[in-house]
């Protein structure tokens, strides 16, 4: 919840209407199979078949992927302002995001990605935060020392994992001033 905001109730309503089952609660089938999907171990049809409890075709899976992407695509305008500022100052920016394959493919071309020199999506790496391997992958790809990297995330466990590797990590609290949190 740094670049985007939380899904709105209407987004979940649309997903649940299309699915015909409740999805938003933490114990739902949406979340039960999400790690495999986010890490790219299962494809869209497999994921939505597991979520819906029945085999789905490519059309249904694509429709569900679209609804899923919509709910995670409400951009945090204050963050975009900070990205613009950092980009204008010549900062080298990269994004590390948990995204399933279909969403990563869609968002890779989104206008906000222009601020980033590299995009790291969990489904393309095969790992999700807070696994140390995902941070090691990013460090290797960026060819940078952990102490030279600043990582911002809204989840304490991700910030802690980054810090254990020597990365300067900042916990972002949604709704607060990211520019102030970064000390800009």
Automatic annotation (TrEMBL):
InterPro entries assigned: HAD-like_sf, HAD-SF_hydro_IA, HAD_sf
Sorted alphabetically, which CDD domains does this protein's record hold? Answer: HAD_sEH-N_like
Q: What's the protein name?
A: HAD family phosphatase
PANTHER family registered for this protein in UniProt? ALPHA-D-GLUCOSE 1-PHOSPHATE PHOSPHATASE (PTHR43611), FLAVIN MONONUCLEOTIDE HYDROLASE 1, CHLOROPLATIC (PTHR43611:SF3)
> Which Pfam families does the UniProt record give?
Hydrolase
């Amino acid at each position: 919840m740094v670049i985007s905001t939380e899904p709105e109730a209407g987004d979940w309503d649309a997903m649940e209407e299309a699915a015909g089952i409740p999805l938003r609660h933490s114990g739902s089938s949406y979340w039960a199979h999400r790690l495999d999907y986010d890490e790219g171990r299962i494809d869209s049809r497999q994921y939505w078949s597991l979520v819906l409890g029945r085999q789905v075709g490519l059309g249904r899976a694509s429709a569900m992927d679209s609804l899923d992407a919509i709910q995670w695509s409400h951009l945090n305008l204050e963050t975009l302002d900070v990205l613009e500022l950092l980009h204008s100052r010549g900062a080298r920016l990269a994004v590390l995001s948990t995204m399933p394959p279909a969403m990563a493919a869609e968002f890779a071309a989104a206008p906000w990605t222009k601020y980033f020199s590299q995009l790291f999506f969990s489904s393309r790496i095969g790992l999700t935060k807070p696994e140390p391997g995902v941070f090691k992958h990013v460090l290797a790809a960026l060819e940078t020392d952990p102490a030279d990297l600043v990582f911002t995330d809204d989840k304490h466990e991700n910030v802690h994992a980054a810090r254990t590797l020597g990365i300067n990590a900042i916990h972002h609290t949604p709704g607060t001033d990211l520019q102030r949190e970064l000390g800009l």
